[in-house]
Amino acid sequence: MGRAPLSKINNMNNNEIRSEFLNFFKSKQHTIVHSAPMVIKNDPTLMFTNAGMNQFKDIFLGNQPVEHLRIVNSQKCLRVSGKHNDLEEVGRDTYHHTMFEMLGNWSFGDYFKEKAIEWAMEFLTEILKLDKNRLYATVFEGDKKDKTEPDLESLEFWKNHLPESHILYGNKKDNFWEMGETGPCGPCSEIHIDLRDEEERAKIEGASLINKNHPLVIEIWNLVFIQYNRISSGELQKLADKHVDTGMGFERLCMAVQGKKSNYDTDVFQPLIQKIAQLSHKKYGDDEPTDIALRVVADHLRAVSFAITDGQLPSNTGAGYVIRRILRRAIRYGYTFLGFNEPFICQLVNTLVQNMGHAFPELITQQNLIEKVIREEENSFLKTLASGIQRFEVGASLADARNDNADARNDNADAREAGRGSLISGAFAFELYDTFGFPIDLTQLLAAEKGMTVDMEGFYQGLEAQKQRSRAAAAIETEDWVELIKTEKSTQFVGYDTLVCESKILKYRNVKSKGKSYYQLVLEKTPFYAESGGQMGDTGVLETINDTIEIVNTIKENNLMVHICNRLPENLNAVFTAKVDEEKRLSTQNNHTATHLLHFALRKVLGTHVEQKGSMVAHDRFRFDFSHFAKVEDEQLREVETLVNDWVRKNIPLCTFYDIPMEEALAMGAMALFGEKYGDKVRVVQFGNSIELCGGTHTSATGNIGYVKIISESAIAAGVRRIEAITGNEAVKFVNDILLVMNDVKQFLKSSNILQGLQKMAEENDKFRKEIDEFAAERVSRFIEMVDKKIEQYNGYNVIQQITVLPPDILKQAAYRLRNHKENFVIILGSNYEDKPNLVVALSDDLVAKGLNAGNIVREAAKLMQGGGGGQPSLATAGGKDCGGLEATLKKALELVG
Is the dihedral of CA 721, 599, 303, 56 positive or negative? Predict the structure, then answer.
């Protein structure tokens, strides 16, 4: 029997499927919202958005008011680390991905289980025309430990849409969704689809394959019913409002609608796969290793590209490390299985943009940056692979030598046979992986080609030790919030208008990290700015008549403004005076305004392609990262700095627009930054023609900044530059320090004109250098003339062996000039110069041709003077620590000649 069509409209393309989903729920009074950035800020528990609900987490936690009771969107997600670690599965099967889209609809205290189930079935069977007979639903069976009952309510609703044989109970692992160890949670119903051929379905019931990891019997939609809150004790508390949170894998849905057996066979991935196949001269479907590599590259390109558009560049730490790891995995698969040894992934970006740019326009606007970043990363890692292979070859030869020596010591034939199976040590494999970024699977592949094996147990021991160190360094114990005042209102921020206000503590909790204990406070209202948007958090105090609590930082965590202090107040219920450190705040907001002026000046001088890619604004300095494809020339930097300071002197007043619609802000010319999450209403900050969306604090007029001084400009990634600058008193101090140094230089040069003084010094230096070189050449000649008369015969060699007190450079020059004066010529020179022993060995070309190697000789001989060295086969040098061993070193060198 052939395979029946799964959908009567299985010619629908991926963009049409996405649009149908959004429009369906729009017709059910849902507000369509944009995808949040894939890279998360202000949440210590997550680096990346790994589910559609992440951007609504603050609503579930009660930290953010509900703007829309019903919402629908398509969220870009990434799962590669932590609980949802799918990276090593990607490419090997047909349905795991790093970056994926999650289609979702939400209800915040509005509809609940009945409508969620009804509309899910309506969309799948009536809009997409999927075969209802292939659909299955699961419901929560209950859990004795949590004292939760089976979800009979959902069961009854499902009976209106599916036969009971297609409704299954699921355990807590599969059918109880939790945000984390604590927080909102509840039972869920999963919708599964059986995509097997009719013949296979007739043999085995689909119900028996649910949640059994069958590649064609898969979950496509999860309907989560959030009705509990789990506290740190593990207890479940019922929520006052019940919410719906659904998530449907877009790629899997496309597979079902388009009648494919793999996500990678859909038009989401096929344009990329076919482009890679074309570049590599491979064919998808010919052999499994090639197919895996094609899938890996196609998947990973999407993840890395979207991360870059959200402002996350590859790096060695945090989220940047994860992105670099994904990209390097793709490069490695292309290198090993597709034959690429030049950058190729950057050539695929245009295909991705053509396929997904309509739904995600940030790909179009940032295509050049994506290509440049990926190209530079490819070049860098391809060099790493080449050097890693060299290091492996050295390590493998040493391992072989150790095994050969062991064989020689074994008389027993069986023992000798066991010894021939050369082993690459786990410690060496881990060093390649951890220190040099060399993939372990490539180490295994290279070892296998040599008939060797890798000690994987030793490798995993090193890896586990590293993880333990990382876990210990990052370990944080967070207690439950203790509520003092129950309220649904968020903290009122008054810090735009005042630095002092009266307030009370709403809640607090204790946090332990790295052996230290501190407290987090949430206030009723606060003048303290919480760290976000690059601006550092405020510091200051909470005061009563009898108590003063120092606030050491203010951060934003899940939309809460959290004040950090080292101890709790004596009276937690008191009314406090909250005071921001005025000097630091004023300097910080001056610097923040300076970043806006700098951004505007850069776009004016370099071009409108310049976009902010990150910033750090502190009270004493700021840095500004921006897109630009070349070094900013000194003249351009001076022009930028001049423009900024012109605007500072004009004392341009601050103009702020609060809570205006996003469309209106953009129409004003306000700049929005990719990678930032904006609501429907935004705050606009304007200084003259500089207009930006910004939630930070700013000076009332540019004149308060005083003076802006750029102190450095550098590259931090491909296509991304960084400017560091200072303002006000810090800038004045910087200039004064330079003037003091210049004055000291003038006195040293005995000249009021520094440039002329340096030129004169350089000329004198050149003259002295020439005289020194002539003197050195004369010393070399005299030394050659002296030792040339001391040639001795040793085992058929012409040998000069001499110890002196001359500098090693003189000996090296002499040896170089002497070594081809005769055939079979060996020169071994030693010196005790400045209480350090030195060795020089030189061989005539005919001896090198016979296999003698000066580098090998000095490496071995230098051990006798506690040293080491190396060089070319014809000339090598070594240094040491023990002058008493110099004579023995020369003797050993001669013995090694043979």
Answer: positive
The arithmetic mean of pLDDT across residues 585-589, rounded, is 97
pLDDT at residue number 66:
80
Strand order in the sheet with 868-871: 792-794, 797-804, 825-833, 836-843, 875-879, 868-871
Triad 715, 716, 717: Cα angle to 5° = 100
Of all helices (H) and strands (E), which one includes residue 199? Answer: helix 198-203
Helix-, strand-, coil-residue percentages of the chain, each rounded to 5: 45, 25, 30
Contact 831, 856 (CB under 8 A): no
Ramachandran assignment for 706, one of left (phi > 0), alpha (psi -120 to 50 degrees), beta (any other): left
Closest to 795 (Cα-Cα) out of 739, 713, 852: 852
3-state secondary structure of 240: strand
The number of beta carbons lying within 10 Å of the beta carbon of residue 319 is 23
What 3-state class would DSSP assign to 752?
coil
Q: Which pair of tokens denotes residue 532?
A: 């976000």
Residue 500 has φ and ψ, to the nearest 5°, of -140, 135
- For the chain, the maximum distance between any two Cα atoms, rounded to a whole number of angstroms, is 109
Task: For residue 84, give both structure tokens.
Answer: 């949802």
Helix (H) / strand (E) containing 643: helix 634-649
| Contact indicator for 503, 524 with CB cutoff of 8 Å | yes
Residue with tokens 């997600």: 77
Residue 757's SS3 state is helix
- From 21-30, 121-130, 768-777, the region with the lowest mean pLDDT: 768-777
Locate 717 and state its tokens: 């990634």
What is the C-alpha separation between 709 and 729, in angstroms, rounded? 11
Which of 524, 536, 541, 456 is CA-nearest to residue 486?
A: 524
Place of tokens 């049409």: 16
Angstrom distance (rounded) from CA 862 to CA 892: 9
Closest CA to 245 of 153, 152, 108: 108
- Amino acid identity at 834: E
Other Cβ atoms closer than 10 A to 269:
24
- CA 746 to the chain's CA centroid: 47
pLDDT single digits (tens) 669-688: 888 776 566 777 899 999 99
Q: In b/e form, how buried is each residue of 770-805, taking b as 16+ CB within 10 angstroms?
A: eeeeeeeeeebeebbeebeeebeeeeebbbbbbebe
Residue for token digits 């300071």? 645
When pLDDT is averaged across residues 221-239 and rounded to a whole number, the result is 89
Contact 80, 98 (CB under 8 A): yes
Q: Which residues of 140-160 are buried (b: 16+ CB within 10 A; e: fewer)?
A: bbbbeeeebeebeebbebbee
* Mean pLDDT score, 57-83: 80
The model's pTM: 0.70
pLDDT at residue 20 tops 70: yes
User: Helices marked H in 518-628 — which ranges?
Assistant: 582-606
Q: Closest Cα partner for 568 from 504, 524, 519, 513?
A: 519
Q: What is the per-residue pLDDT for 814?
A: 86
pLDDT digits (tens, 9 = 90+) for 236-279: 888 878 999 999 999 999 999 999 999 999 999 999 999 999 99
CA pair distance 168, 134, nearest whole angstrom: 14
